[in-house]
Design brief:
Length: 256
Amino acid sequence: MIWNVIGLCQIGRQAAVAAWQGIDYGNYYASKSFFEAKKGRSITWGWANKSDSSSDDAAKAIPGRIWLDSDGKQLLQWPVEEADVEIEFEPRTMDKADPFDPSWLLDTEKHYREADASASGGLGPFGLILLASDNLEEHTAVHFRIYKSQHKHMIRLVNVIHETRAVHATPAYGCFFKFDIEKERRISLRTLIDRSAVESFGGGGRVCSMARVYPVVLVGDRSAHMYAFNNGTSTVRVSQLKAWSMRRAQVNVKKA
């Protein structure tokens, strides 16, 4: 998990600083950022470690563009355009959103597992099922769930992995974030998938969650499936769905 803090630094004066807040969750660490002057953007790039063993197995995460939100209170992150599945969900009503319990923040992974993608709620879970086998015995679920909070709605984004080959129990990765769904009306999700990683950017870049995956369904170039789903009692419309296949990288190696 990667934390950040936003504030104002003035020489000779003590500056008020906002509270630390997370931006990257899951199997993500050792991120580095740099400024790409040609396109005038800041890029962050990190690593993802293996989740179900102690072996030294790490992979590069998807590079993302980072910028400051218009209100100046939060960093946003979105994958670079060169790099997928992009989808927008539009809830028809907020009336059935379940109440948010702040005690869930004390043990978020426990809550993620108890209220997983199969547990029906008022508004959610809804999202994507990725890298799925024919019988869904093996799959990765990336999903939202909306809760009523005191001021804005609290939204939960979670990655839950179900693998037949897992030696240890695979963790559920995710986070809660505040979102003015009454104003925005839609929740965006962009997910990038390769043969060993799933990285999801939610809420217009407010959160990012990374998970390493090793599905048996991909062994021997067998096909995997993807589905959009809604297991909540309220109607949620898919207002946009786009999907691309990323090409293999062309690496030029100079011989000595």
